[in-house]
Amino acid sequence: MATWAYPPLPPARLEQEVESTLAKELEWLLRSLQDSLVSLREGLHECAALLAPKEPGSTLVLSSLRSENVKGYVTRVGTQIVKGDIQLRLSSLASVRGSANTRLCLSNASEAPELVLDQLVSVKNLVNQSLDIVDVSTWTGDPLNAGFIFSQLHLLRETITEARQMLKGESDKVKQKWWEASAAENMFDPPLPPCLSFHLTIADSALVLHLRTLESSTPTHTPTAFASDISLTGFNIRDRLFGTRHRPHDEAGDVFTWKGDEVKVKEKVRWTIGSRYSSSATPALPDATHAERKDAVYALIDEINQNEAAMADIMEELDLLDDFDQALNLDGLEYEHAFSQTIGHRDQETLEGRVRMARQEFREYLPPDYLNARETELYTRLYGEPIYRDLDSIQPDLELAEELEEGQDPAADQLYREDGQGGWEEVEMVEEELELELEPEEDDIPVVYDMEAGPEVPETDAMRRTREIAEQLGGEVMLEQFQDEAVPDGNDNPRFHPTTELGRSGTNPSTVFLPNDSLVKPISMILSDFSNKHLQETARRVFKGQYLPLSVTTPPRSVQAPQLPSPLEASQRHMSEMESNAYLAAMYPGFYASVLSVLVEVRKRLGTDWLRGLMAKEEGPSVLDASAGGAGIIAWREIMRAEWEAMDPERPFSEIPIGKSTVVVGSNSLRARASALLHNTTFLPRLPDYVHLRENATLDDDRAPKRKQFDIVIAPHSIHPIDEEYLRKEHVKNLWQLVNPNGGILILLEKGHQRGFEAIAGARDMLLKRVIRNTDLKTSDEDIASEEDAEDDLDLDKEPGMIIAPCTNHAQCPMYRVPGHTVGRGDWCHFKQRYIRPPFLQRIIDAKTHNHEDLRFSYLAVQRGVDLREEKGFKQDRVAKFHAAKGYEHLFPDPQTRAAMSEEEQQKLAEQEAQFEPLTLPRIVYPPLKRRGHVTFDICTPDAQIERWTVPRSFSRQAYRDVRKSQWGDLWALGSKTQIERKVKLGTKHGLSKKDRLEARAAAREAAKDAQEEEEADAAAQDRKPELLIPKRKKGEKIPSWKKHQDKKKVRQHYSQLKPADS
Question: Which regions are flagged for Basic residues bias (predicted)?
Answer without folding.
Answer: 1031-1053
